[in-house]
Amino acid sequence: MKKTMIVVLSMLIGSSLMGVEPLKKVYINQIVGHIAIDITVKGIIDGLADKGYVKDKTVDIRVESAQGNAALAAQISSKFVSQGADVVVGVGTVSAQSCLKYALEGKANLVFSTVTDPVQAGLIEALEKPSPNISGVSNFVALEPQLELFKKIQPNLKTLGVLYNPGEPNSLSINKRLEKICESMGITLVLQSANKTADMPQAATKLAGRVDAIFISNDNTALAALQSIIEIAGKAKIPVYLSDTDSVEMGALAALGPNQYQVGVQTGKIIARRLKGEDLGSIPIEFPDKTELYLNKDAAGKIGIEFPQDILDKASKIIGGSGK
């Protein structure tokens, strides 16, 4: 009788265990920590939750930062693949690229997020032709309206400086576009590179005395050093413009760009579609649904700039002053 009871209990326990499916694994490799990237990751987690994949309950979500280091990004992606991730998420171009070979070999499902130019980065062949095992969301928005905004705020803007990391393909792509646009608008473009965040303040110092304004367009290395850059620009009495709206509160003058949280939510929903069985290669690349305009009145006051009323009327958010 005792042996029979043991056998029955063993069978019941075994049946119970067999009925419990392991959690799906979504492992996120973010290139660096700064406001835009961090809020994108939050959006990804919330977007998954909206589709029933709740962190630590119905899905195993892990987040690791490569701290701006391409070699570390590669190590993280390799580890995630070896740990059997159902989806590896590359937040930022370099992190996404670090998982590319595994996706192309069929060893990983890669969803990228906040990648400015996925074609230039080699993640896909063409926007209308996603690659097998790869899809994602770009954070690219048109550059022309941004420069038109800068000119309205600063009618005498003649020289625009750009800080960027030459190791970030998205920044190289943006710079090529800026060269053509600036030429057509009569603006002299001055490019200043730095290979790592620690070198950005020195690069900003070199740039500040030569330009009328500094522009940072989605370069993660520069954004990670944003506070120092803003302080240097402030001493030179020149504004800092961004494409990243969430970082305006740190002291930049203005930004016309995507809502990075929503970019993350869009990404989370693509991940959920893969977890439910869809082939990523059949899911079109997505872009931000809209742009938002953030203005910083406190930053404007410090450098003697006053926003035109029509610009204020269009703002999604105003920092300082009466605010919105």
Write the element-wise H/E pattern from the N-terminal end onward: HEHEHEHHEEHEHEHEHHEEHEHHE
Number of strands: 12
CATH homologous superfamily designation of the largest domain: Response regulator
Count of alpha/pi helices: 13
| Spatial strand order of the main sheet | 7-6-8-9-10-11-12
Low-confidence stretches: 1-18
- Just name the CATH architecture of the largest domain: 3-Layer(aba) Sandwich
Q: What class do helices, strands and sheet pairing give?
A: alpha/beta
- Give the averaged pLDDT, no decimals: 92
Overall domain count: 2
**N-C termini distance:** 75 Å
Shape: elongated
How would you sum up the major sheet?
7 strands, mixed
Helix content: 40-55%
Reading off the top of the CATH hierarchy, the class of the largest domain is best stated as: Alpha Beta
Range of strand content = 15-25%
CATH fold description of the largest domain: Rossmann fold
Description:
Helix 2 links the parallel strand 1 (24-30) and strand 2 (59-65). The protein has helices at 2-18, 35-50, 70-82, 93-97, 100-104, 144-153, 169-185, 200-208, 220-224, 226-235, 260-275, 297-302, 309-314, and strands at 24-30, 59-65, 87-91, 110-113, 134-137, 159-164, 188-193, 213-216, 240-242, 254-258, 291-296, 317-319. It has 324 residues and is α/β, with parallel strands linked by helices. It has two domains: 22-140 and 260-282, 3-Layer(aba) Sandwich (Rossmann fold); 144-258 and 291-319, Rossmann fold (3-Layer(aba) Sandwich), CATH 3.40.50. Helix 2 crosses helix 11 (260-275) and helix 8 packs parallel to helix 10. The strands form two sheets. Strands 7-6-8-9-10-11-12 form a seven-stranded mixed sheet, with helices on both faces. Strands 2-1-3-4-5 form a five-stranded parallel sheet, with helices on both faces. It is elongated, with a radius of gyration of 23 Å. The chain has 13 helices and twelve strands. The model is unreliable at 1-18 (pLDDT under 50).
